[in-house]
Structures are given as structure tokens and as C-alpha cells.
TrEMBL record:
It is found in: Cell membrane. CDD domains: TM_PBP2 (cd06261). InterPro entries: BP-dependent_transpt_permease (IPR050366), MetI-like (IPR000515), MetI-like_sf (IPR035906). This is ABC transporter permease. Its main location: membrane. One of its GO terms (cellular component) is plasma membrane. Belongs to the binding-protein-dependent transport system permease family. The chain crosses the membrane at residues 36-57, 109-130, 151-170, 176-195, 238-266, 286-310. It comes from the Bacteria.
């Protein structure tokens, strides 16, 4: 296909494709210039892919008791069991579960809780921030005072409080079944404030601009002005906060599970695996704690580095 289209005697250059436009953008250029960000991206993609395709990658399902051999418990890394002939890349734990399989399946739970909690906090905080910044008055005062009160408590303590209150209203038999939902709600409710404050400030700036005044003049309802005009212009800082918040949500889930109030041992996340592994830290079975801890560190650090880079590249004041 030719690169130019002729209209009479005028030659019009063909428009570049969307992929070419993206590859030539400042974001891609900035990404190529930072080796640390490239490595963080590769680590994040590998860990995401490993968690997503865990059923096809791992030699066993650590959540299925039929695939676990107690006789293979405490098998060291890079060792073949003398009893079943199974090769354990990262060793096995006290129940005979393959640590490599447990890490990938645990990463699925940690990432699911992290993404869902960030999405819940983002949606809730964005809605409250839009309402407070656009409406003002008593709505703004009420939402911001609640946010100020919540900011006086560390987020992990707030998540513990919310987790305990929700579980207190549920029968004990349902605790294991709804643990993941309770975790998502608890972490999401403890992190909505930062989204609400960012959206409120951006909304107060945007609502005084000329395009919003013009939309009001032509008779557009407030809901359409918020959704079609203001919301797209306040999402950039929200997405940056969400990227950084994903690492914090994963760490919060791991902390709650480590404290014994998160995922049960039958459906371990990375935090649960670390809690189980600490019992054997000084008894010689070091791999049960080390490898889940390294996996959590790599996942949280790589996502956090990507969030910091995205914040810098999307902020024109830092260029």
C-alpha cells in the first residue's frame, strides 16, 4: 500500500496506524530509556502469566488433597522424592505440597484480591470525589470529614477493623467460604480515601473551566457533564494511584493473611504461605518461607516500580 493518497493535485500523507503512534509516543520512549523499568515490566509480566496459567504450568494443584502426598513432606529443593519419584523444583512443605505450585496458585489469589480491592476502592473513591468536588456544600463537608477521620488510622489497622466487623456478622461456618470477598471489601474500604481526595481536587479545578460552563449553557444535565466531560479529565491521576495502590493492596492482603485473619490454609495466598513457612524457619526447612517471601517481594517491588515510573511519565511537571 502506498504511503500517500492523491486527491487531484494534492498529495495527502497517510495517517500512521495506532500501533505505530503508540510505539512513537513519549511513554514508550521513556520506558526504553530506563533499564530498571524494563526489568520490572518483564518480572511483572512473567509473574502475571505464571499466576494466570498456573493450572497448565504447575505439576500439581496444591488445593486438591488427592494430588498431595504426605509422605513427600519436607522434600528439599531440586530433589526427587525417594517414595513417589516426584521432582520438587522448590521443595515441598509440611503437607507435601509442591512449593512452586503453591506459589503460583497463591499468586493468583494475591493478584485477584489486589486487583479487586483496587478496583473497588477506585470506583468508590471516584464516585465520592466527583460528588464532593462537583456538588460541594454539605456533601463535600461530610465526605471529607469522614476521609479525614479515616486518615488518622493506619490503613492496615482500618482493614483489620473492617475485616473483623464483617466477619462478626457472619456465621463461623461461612468464614472460609467468603474470606476472599471479605478481604476485598476490607482492603477496598481502607484505601478509598486517596482516590476521593485526588478526584475531588481535580474536579474542583475542572468544573470552573470554560468547557464545563459551555456544557451547562447548552442545557446538559449535571450527570452527563460529570460522566462525559469531567470524569475523563480526572482519571489520569486516579490510574497512577491505582497502579501504585495495587502493590500496596497485595502487601495488605499478605499482611492480613500473615496475621491469620486473611485466606485460610486450605486456599493459601502468598501471605498465608509465609505465615506457614515461619514455623519452620529455624528447623532446617528454610525453603518453605524463603521462596514465597521472595515471590511476594519481586511482585510488589516490580509493580511499585512501574507505578512510580507511570506517575513520573504522566506528570508533565516532572519532565
Amino acid at each position: 500500500m502506498s504511503q500517500h493518497a492523491e486527491r487531484g493535485d494534492v498529495v495527502v500523507p497517510a495517517r500512521p496506524g495506532r500501533l505505530r503512534t503508540f510505539l512513537d509516543s513519549d511513554i514508550v520512549y521513556s520506558w526504553k530509556q530506563q533499564p530498571v523499568v524494563i526489568v520490572a515490566t518483564l518480572v511483572t509480566l512473567v509473574m502475571f502469566a505464571g499466576a494466570l496459567f498456573a493450572p497448565w504450568i504447575t505439576p500439581q494443584n496444591p488445593f486438591d488433597p488427592r494430588q498431595i502426598d504426605l509422605i513427600d513432606a519436607f522434600t528439599p529443593p531440586l530433589t526427587t522424592s525417594d517414595f513417589t519419584g516426584t521432582f520438587y523444583l522448590l521443595g515441598s512443605d509440611s503437607q507435601g505440597r509442591d512449593v512452586f505450585s503453591a506459589i503460583l496458585y497463591g499468586s493468583r489469589i494475591s493478584l485477584l484480591v489486589g486487583f479487586a480491592a483496587v478496583l473497588f476502592a477506585l470506583v468508590l473513591g471516584t464516585l465520592l470525589g466527583l460528588s464532593a468536588g462537583f456538588r460541594g456544600g454539605w456533601r463535600d463537608a461530610l465526605i471529607m470529614r469522614v476521609a479525614d477521620v479515616q486518615l488518622t488510622f493506619p490503613s492496615i489497622l482500618m482493614a483489620l477493623l473492617i475485616f473483623g466487623v464483617i466477619r462478626g456478622f457472619l456465621p463461623r461456618s461461612m468464614h472460609a467460604e467468603v474470606a476472599i470477598i471479605v478481604l476485598i471489601v476490607a482492603i477496598g474500604l481502607s484505601d478509598w480515601v486517596q482516590y476521593a481526595r485526588a478526584v475531588r481536587g481535580a474536579t474542583m479545578v475542572e468544573k470552573s473551566k470554560e468547557y464545563v460552563q459551555a456544557a451547562r449553557v447548552i442545557g446538559l444535565p449535571d450527570r452527563k457533564i460529570l460522566v462525559q466531560h469531567i470524569l475523563p479529565n480526572v482519571m489520569r491521576p486516579v490510574l497512577v494511584i491505582g497502579t501504585i495502590g495495587l502493590a500496596l493492596a497485595i502487601i495488605a492482603e499478605a499482611t492480613l493473611s500473615f496475621l491469620g485473619v486473611g485466606m485460610p490454609a486450605t486456599q493459601p495466598s502468598l501471605g498465608t504461605l509465609i505465615r506457614v513457612g515461619q514455623d519452620y524457619m529455624f528447623s532446617g526447612e528454610w525453603w518453605i518461607l524463603l521462596f514465597p517471601g521472595v515471590a511476594l517481594l519481586m511482585l510488589a517491588l516490580s509493580v511499585n516500580l512501574l507505578g512510580d515510573w507511570l506517575r513520573d511519565v504522566l506528570n508533565p511537571k516532572l519532565r
